[in-house]
Each structure stands twice: as structure tokens, then as C-alpha cells.
Amino acid sequence: DKTHMKIKSKRCNPGEVLVIVSKVRAYLDSKGVRTSGDLPEALSEEVRKILDRAVERCKEHGKATVGPRDI
After folding, report:
1. Where are the alpha helices (DSSP H) in the chain?
2. What pTM does this model have?
3. Quick one: 3 exposed, middle or buried, by C-beta within 10 A (0-12, 13-18, 19+)?
4. Which residues contact 40 (CB under 8 A, 6 or more apart)?
5. What gap in Å lies between CA 39 and CA 58, rounded to an integer?
6. What is the full per-residue pLDDT of the chain (71 aa) written as tens digits?
């Protein structure tokens, strides 16, 4: 019975792109510049750093939910 199947939680691979590349390209296009091929990976690494700091702050305050004030 498919209703009893376990759903695996999605885990992020360390090098996985965390940004929507088409949205980044569209934003930069609107600013009149182009996107280099390695920008999504570099941007994702910066997002990872921000999120890692937010997780630390969240845990320091005894919370289990990361919110805007943790960034």
C-alpha cells in the first residue's frame, strides 16, 4: 500500500546548488550584466555560510526554527 510508504527527508549534498539559477540570471540580466558559469556554485557557498551562522545562532538561543533574526 503506497499510503504507508516512508518519505525520505531530503538531504543537501555539500556541493549542491542552493539558488535558482534562472532567477539569479534574470535578476542580473535586469541589472544589465551577465552571469558567469561558476556564479551559482559560489553564490550557493555564501548562502551555506549564512545559513550555518543562522543555525548556530538559533541553537544558541535554544530554538529549533531558524528565522530572519538569526541571519
Report:
1. 21-30, 39-60
2. 0.76
3. exposed
4. 17, 19, 21, 24
5. 28
6. 444 444 455 676 778 999 999 999 999 999 999 999 999 999 999 999 999 999 999 999 999 999 999 99
